Amino acid sequence: MQSLFKHRLFWPFLTLVLLLAVDATFNPGFWSLQWRDGHLYGSIIDILNRAAPLALVALGMTLVIATRGIDISVGATIAIAAAVAALMIGGDLVIKDGVAQRVAHNPMWLAILVSLGAATLCGLWNGLLVARVGMQPIIATLILMVAGRGIAQLMTDGQIITVYYEPFFFIGNGFLLGLPFAVYIAVAVWLVLHLLMTRTALGLFIQSIGINPAASRMAGLPERLITVCVYAFCGLAAGVAGLVISSNVKSADANNAGLLMELDAILAVTLGGTLLTGGRFSLAGSVLGALIIQTLTSTIYSIGVPPEINMVVKAAVVFVVMLLQSAEFRAAVRGWIVRPSAGGAR
Amino acid sequence: METQVVLEARGVTRRFTGVLALSNVNLQLRAGEIHALMGQNGAGKSTLIRVLTGVFPADAGEVLLSGEMIHPASPAAAQRLGISTVYQEVNLCPNLSVAENIFAGRYPRRSAAGLWRIDWPRMQAEAKTLLTRLNLDIDVTRLLSSYPVAVQQMVAIARALSVKAKVLILDEPTSSLDEQEVERFFAVLRQLRGEGMAILFVTHFFEQMYAISDRITVLRNGEFVGEWLKDELPPNALITAMVGRELSAAAGRNEAQVDVSGTPQLAAQGFGRRGTLQPVDLALHRGEVVGVGGLLGSGRTELARLLFGLDRCDSGELQVEGRKVKFDKPAQAIRQGLAMCPEERKHDGIVAELSVRENIALALQARLGIWNYLSRAKQKEMADHFVKALGIKTADIDTPIALLSGGNQQKVVLARWLATEPKLLILDEPTRGIDVAAKQEIMNEILALARGGLAVLFISSEMDEVVRVSDRIVVLRDRAKVGELPGNSSEQAVYHLIASGQN
Amino acid sequence: MKTNKLRLDSRFLPLVGTIAVFLLTFGYGSFAYRGFFSAQVFLNLLIDNGFLLILGVGMSFVILSGGIDLSVGSVIALTTMISAALIEHRHWSVWQTIPLVLLVGTVFGAFMGWLIQRFRLQPFIVTLAGMFLARGLCYLISIDSIAITDPAYVVISEARYALWEGAQVSVGAMLAVAMLVIGIWLAHATEFGRTVYAIGGSEASALLMGLPVKRTMVLVYTLSGFCSALAGVVFTFYMLSGYGLHAVGSELDAIAAVVIGGTLLSGGVGYVFGTLFGVLILGSVQTLIAFDGSLSSWWTRIVIGALLFVFCLLQRAFENKR
User: Fold this and answer.
1) Where do the structural domains in chain C lie, given as residue ranges?
2) The model's pTM
3) What is the CATH number assigned to the segment(s) C17-25+35-321?
4) Nearest chain B Cα distance for residue C207, angstroms
5) What is the value of ipTM here, to two decimals?
6) A169 in a domain, yes or no?
7) What CATH number belongs to B1-78+208-243?
8) What's the gap in Å between the CA of C180 and the closest CA on chain B?
9) Chain A residue with Cα closest to C315
């Protein structure tokens, strides 16, 4: 039983279960699943679908945090990816053989490729600033966080670009074997990452770099290369998330796309048990964290509290998680709860 | 003559989550005396000092200042009571000026009319006066970082004096000083002693301790062993007190000649870096141990770093087995069969939260690359082998390395490099901060490795170690090579070469 | 004596560099555009960016101590929102509102500072959470903007004081300059300021030297919170409304101003005076873009990001040389 408590995923899992329980209490039809329009339908499916883009960003963020870094520009990257895709696809009305059709400006596969490429470039930029120039990650990514959104706004001239091309909607709205396609994307990325981390030396290297970069360099680890790659992947993951999001809402809004995603992603990672100071990380934990956050949003909604309170609640949760991860806090709490016994022993 | 006891620790005990760091320790510092605190690593010297200076309180026992019990709650409080400390790493702020460092926290102020603002001119004048007392005439408005460590140490002492200290505690103050600077430092200490200051001096340099101290207290495993006048405790007795047993004579050196006729494993010609190391010529052969002798700051670690690719050379060339090579980063050196155990174990060596198994596998894995992953079973096999071969004391190979003692951590780092099956091993201070027993084990291992065909470059600040284990000694002075001596030279011969600067 | 001069230069080099960049920027504008070179254009820099200068003073102390505060822009928004709600909905007077919002900002900063110090949390995550908390509180008060029509506010907002013919300043500009002077005095004449520098140089050393490190750490963020609130007051006068989307990105602007002003992000090195020039440079860039007229407003964000990038690069080069 002891080892169950000690398992790293225990507390995140328990939190999720508790939240689901609260949700189910206030919302009697919460667990109900129906088969409609050829796919599964229900609150649970909703949560999974909405959590997918957050899970993607959180997965990318996990590796960055593991190397002792941070990336607060993911929201801007999402906006850029969405803008590029929307602009490249668009969807003009064309009459062919008497039938009105929506045709894309460019082949969809090309648009997706360029969009993901742009996102990866953003991540690469961050990675180079951190690894080659030696900037603090918070500052390096802060630059892109604001300048990047400006770039996205420049591209779309501040307007919302609507996409009319049907096939594009499948990414964020489609269903495969009854489950949302977006969930498959997230699971696939998770699986690939998991294999990379455990079947290759990447997992060991990333942890080593996060714990002691100097010793890692001396041991011959290609730490600069890995750092750059980790940020580049984070950008790529944000790009995929951007595609899912823009496909879901069938448009790209440079002002609001991905707004506040940074905090959500960081929160998901820390909820999942990865420490902000880097080192050991947990991909499963981050996915759990994303599910927790999405369930939290849905719980707030179902209780009947106004959605504006969402931001405040999330900030509060960040505070609580931070405190719990702090050794000083745990020691202080122990000091309040447990009165020291006479004799000065522990 | 009975001098007055100024600071006393009586029955002091201190625990850290299950470890008994100090148990019933006594210490008496007298006015006008230099008192040495001796003990091996882990004996409790640092802990005792932290209790005396208010970093944390004792769990049991008392601390008395001039006969009255005190409970300093912080270093600031201890300072106010008149207890000042100078640490091994100069604990001042490099980005502030010398004057400000001396008076930080007790700034001279202007009057109410001047809104009690800091009086900079007065602060600088008083700082200059204090430093003159220590025979130091420097510009006090310059940043502390613009002065060498020896001067910074003096500034630290000046700060201690400015608080009208009655007790001066010095924790390993001479580790970064060369011989001349140590002499100047001791002159200041003698002067302060003459003025009636009670001084506590912690060091692991035997010679220095005997040169300056009046009284010695020895700690062992957190316990108080005894207090003696210096003349009552000759070196053998001191070692026995510190270690608890008679040290056996060190293993004799293997007198077998090493074959140096073939192509050297590593050869350097005119190899150097401006400002760091003047061009040197060096050759290392398989099967020989080449020691590097020199004082602090002579360029030993710098030489190692250049050879291993941590720093880039800008003159000369390097050859491995006759082939010309250039190292821009350690990964390249490793590929050529080099390995290096760094000087700063904690900073450059161990990866704290990773397990012993992962630490050992690290360098080999780095050379194999990302895709060629050593399976967990293979890692376990490797770790088990080295735990046995080097006698690493650990509960389990999956224990985080941070939980091991210094000596065992060093063995793990050594294992990491041996796992790459190097042809040349550079060891930079491999026995620093390690207890005597583990030191012996590591030294024996080094000899065995060399006899097994490894080329070894051995750097140590303990000259007796260098002399004992090397087949050849390269002597450095002031960032340049001044010559080479055969392995069975005496310590005097090496120092003579350093002093004279020529063979 | 020659060595004296060299030594002076190396310590003040970043500051000299910043002033030079400002003169260059302003000079370029004066050459390229008619009407640029005038006292009023210069003073408008202070009028339009007064709030940023106040933010910069607070941020200077935070960065000098080795930390960072990402919540400053959000606290400005919160200040405008609380002010607007109290004035328009509860009919409070100016003199009741301002002390209250200043108190709110100060307490907010103190709370974050306490968390950071007491539990050794990382400043960027605590202030990042604070950033979202403050804006969230804004939305709790009102989702839409609240326009301020209170006559006292309008009077203060429009008040102009003539320094000489053709040169006017606003209340906000004067408050900003006052805060700058206070900031410089704090940094050089008080124990608090010197302790901030010491902590930025080496927190461990500062502790062992007996400096009041814990108290100062909390005070640094408290000061930043106060400055954010004061900047919010100035911003309220400037915009005459309360809105949750006010001052988005101001934290980056403040950090940029401090960095461009010559303060190292690693802490311990820099001058509050330099932040003034950092703000002036940012303001000049904005004015240049406005004078040009052909570039859209998105460009300001991008240019500021670019400037910050360049100065960070220079800082790294400077640090490597030392």
Assistant:
1) 17-25+35-321
2) 0.82
3) 1.10.3470
4) 8
5) 0.85
6) yes
7) 3.40.50.300
8) 17
9) A135
